[in-house]
Amino acid sequence: xxxxxxxxxxxxxxxxxxxxxxxxxxxxxxxxxxxxxxxxxxxxxxxxxxxxxxxxxxxxxxxxxxxxxxxxxxxxxxxxxxxxxxxxxxxxxxxxxxxxxxxxxxxxxxxxxxxxxxxxxxxxxxxxxxxxxxxxxxxxxxxxxxxxxxxxxxxxxxxxxxxxxxxxxxxxxxxxxxxxxxxxxxxxxxxxxxxxxxxxxxxxxxxxxxxxxxxxxxxxxxxxxxxxxxxxxxxxxxxxxxxxxxxxxxxxxxxxxxxxxxxxxxxxxxxxxxxxxxxx
Length: 280
Description:
The protein has strands at 4-15, 49-58, 67-79, 82-95, 98-113, 116-132, 155-170, 174-181, 187-189, 195-197, 201-211, 217-227, 232-242, 246-253, 257-265, 271-279. It is mainly β. The termini are far apart.
């Protein structure tokens, strides 16, 4: 299967405290392994078939703690002697009584400039937002009522259309990208009393690979900045690779956590990794 670049399942366990608003855009410590979730222009940058999956568990052992599931498939194709990429992406985020699923069709236009690639990408899809009122427990006493008009007693959900755009530049030793997510500011009319919306996000990514004097070792740096124009999150990570088979990593998320990670590369482009976040 030489056409397969990567197909991996990454287990990421976090001990990170985030507010409810941040759950609109889940944290992934190994974000560099799934660039398509933040930038549609990054699909098939290597001009090969890609399949990637990730499961994230926050606050292990805590009931109803946030969980995220991500899966994407993409493939390159030629049209009118020009390179393109197309794919599909699924996400499922659950946190307490809330759940959000998404499905996006992804497209990227690729333009080769010598050994480099300039890409422009687009996401088109839908979000489904759910509140499970059956999980809500209301206090009952002489001072409390058994129901609340703004708290549902059953599962309610609504769908919304969404778009994202991005651009990326990939060279032999480095890459950079910028993307604009949640362009439509998706709004969900769950019922007469409950309406909610998701914020737009602007994301910047970049990375550089340095070949150490001993050819079997590489040092790789990665960075991610994302903002909803009211607050921002900054990630920086360093990975040490041995024989292009094993890697150890250390990362830092601004005002949030120190990240420890490790993994190894398997045959047929498979990559198995693990990360642990220590809250700061």
